[in-house]
Amino acid sequence: MTVPILKQGHILIASIQAALTDRDLIDLKDELTTSVGRFRSRGVIIDVSALDVMDSFAARTLRSVAEATRLRGARTVIVGIQPDVAFSMVQLGLGLGEISTALDLEGGLEMLAAFGLEGGGADER
Amino acid sequence: MPEILARSDAHIRQVLDYDVERRRRFVNLQPIDLEHIAELKEDVLKHLDEHVEAFFSYLDALPEAGGLFPGSDMRAEAIRLKRDHLTAMVGGEYGKDYVEQRVTLGIVYSRAGLDARMFLGGFHALLRSLGARIMEQAEEPMPAFDRLTSLSKVLFFDLAIIVDVLIADRESTIALQQEAIRELSTPALQIRDRLLIMPIIGVLDTHRARQLTEGLLRAIRDNRAKVVVMDVTGVATVDTKVANHLLQTIAASRLMGAEVIITGLSAEVAQSLVTLGVDLTKLNAVGDLQGGLEQAERLLGYQLVRLAPPVERASA
Amino acid sequence: MSDEICLRVERDADVVAARQKGRELAALAGITGSDLTVVATAISEIARNIIVYAKRGQIVLRIAQNGHRRGVVVIATDQGPGIADIDLAMRDGFSTGKSLGLGLPGARRLMDEFEIVSEAGHGVTVTMTKWSR
């Protein structure tokens, strides 16, 4: 199952679906890393609102996405962690390290704007 | 009505702990709280019907509460008692007589078939009604919130008594009583856009701390909050488990994009946290609520600006 | 739905299936709120462990009763290489980020009861339980 990735100006937005396998997560990582390079994106928003569980593998993968895209000059924000998922994550002892988080897509865009990035209109390329 | 009260309520009064001092200590009722309540009195009395209505609407909507207070007489009586209750609640006198009146009220509810769970729900609806009105009328959120916190203490004081009665009447055990009080979740109040306040009152145990966390995280989502001011003035002591829960709550809130500011940390609680090995620097703790709110507002980009000098009232 | 479900764990998609079924059964056992996600997360960790370390195994989900309380029991077994040093495996490496990827200490934190039996060369059996509150 592929994760849809939207381009909004200099920002890439990926919306994760609920039934994401490990393979899907890795594919997403590769796709985002490539796209950031190709489009010279400066921001990445990964929306996990539909994710039922954030386990250690998912967290690790998201951390490496953030790291890989950072190396290509983009800032990542994870948005949409649900209350139950946030609760389970801290019980598990799982963190997202230095990755920024926001409540939802709007919050993520606000955050990136505060970092000096603009979302802009529709896809230009 | 008098005959109902006379029927075997002697055993309830026997079993109940009337220790007023202990009950006041449980909610940490202080002289300053009495002052705050006096300031609130007029407003609460002005909206008495509205608040009473919130309580009964909640019960009416419960399928299992259908048939409670059958007949308009009993209902009218219950409403009258509730009005009296609320009036006394802002009256400022919380001694033996006050406790006895609450016991009487509890007996009425119990005989009407209200159980602890239903009552807690209605009570919660009442608290929300009071809270919403008080915060709405407020010019400055902070003093209004202080007053609300003080009033909440009396509400919890009442709650404990009435739940005691409901349970004593059903000859349940102390364990059930603890459970019922724990089940009441503390409401998170939105006082400004993106800003939540969560007052925590009474004894915190693992179970309640967990419910608190769940409630807060949901409130962050529902209100799109970016900052939460968690006021622990009403918490007397904290143990390791609860301290950990607090830290977890802060971490989980951050994952949802919200910052937590802790206010009202008493020297005693701060000390026990340090003793428990909690790194206080990891906590964003501000001494008092005012400071906490100011910091919250700064974080959100608000700034209080006086546009004109205060108006001097000319003499007639 | 019966009181016991047996699931094969071998492919990626099985991890997702296991945690979804786990969530459903937990709900039937009267588990509510965030605990449902907690159970699903623990199952996800354990299921992935099976695939990573033993290539294949199985997970049995069962509803248990203890007095007036009900709960969900998860029994994960595999016939993989097993764990030689259980204490080491259960040591918490998460905070340092250098964990071997073992979801065991994490799953233990999430569940109410947790038991692990293993011997080098003889696979692993993890039994964990979450009770309704």
Give the SSE map.
The complex is a heterotrimer of chains A (125), B (316) and C (133).
Chain A: E1 5-8, E2 11-15, H1 22-39, E3 43-47, H2 56-71, E4 75-79, H3 83-92, E5 100-102, H4 105-114
Parallel strand pairs in A: 2-3, 3-4, 4-5
Antiparallel strand pairs in A: 1-2
Chain B: H1 2-6, H2 10-15, H3 20-26, H4 31-46, H5 48-61, H6 71-89, H7 96-111, H8 116-137, H9 141-169, H10 174-183, E1 189-192, E2 195-201, H11 206-223, E3 227-234, H12 240-255, E4 259-263, H13 267-275, E5 285-286, H14 289-299
Parallel strand pairs in B: 2-3, 3-4, 4-5
Antiparallel strand pairs in B: 1-2
Helix pairs in contact in B: 4-9, 5-6, 5-8, 6-7, 7-9, 8-9, 9-10, 11-12
Chain C: E1 4-9, H1 12-28, H2 34-54, E2 57-66, E3 69-78, H3 86-89, H4 104-110, E4 113-118, E5 124-131
Antiparallel strand pairs in C: 1-2, 2-3, 3-5, 4-5
| Largest interface by Cβ-Cβ < 8 Å | A-C, 24 and 28 residues
Profile the largest sheet of chain A.
5 strands, mixed
In quaternary terms, these chains amount to heterotrimer
Uncertain segments of chain C of ≥5 residues (pLDDT<50)? 94-100
H and E string of chain A: EEHEHEHEH
CATH class of chain A: Alpha Beta
CATH superfamily (homologous) name of chain C = Histidine kinase-like ATPase, C-terminal domain
Question: Which radius of gyration of chain C do the C-alpha atoms yield?
Answer: 14 Å
Q: What's the CATH topology label of chain A? A: Transcription Regulator spoIIAA
Proportion of beta-strand residues of chain A? 15-25%
Report the span from N to C terminus of chain A. Answer: 25 Å
| Total number of distinct structural domains of chain A | 1
* CATH architectural group of chain C: 2-Layer Sandwich
Mean pLDDT of chain A: 89
- Uncertain residue ranges of chain A: 120-125
* Biggest beta sheet summary of chain C: 5 strands, antiparallel
Strand order of the largest sheet of chain C: 1-2-3-5-4
CATH class of chain C: Alpha Beta
**Beta-strand share of residues of chain C:** 25-35%
Please indicate the count of domains of chain C.
Answer: 1
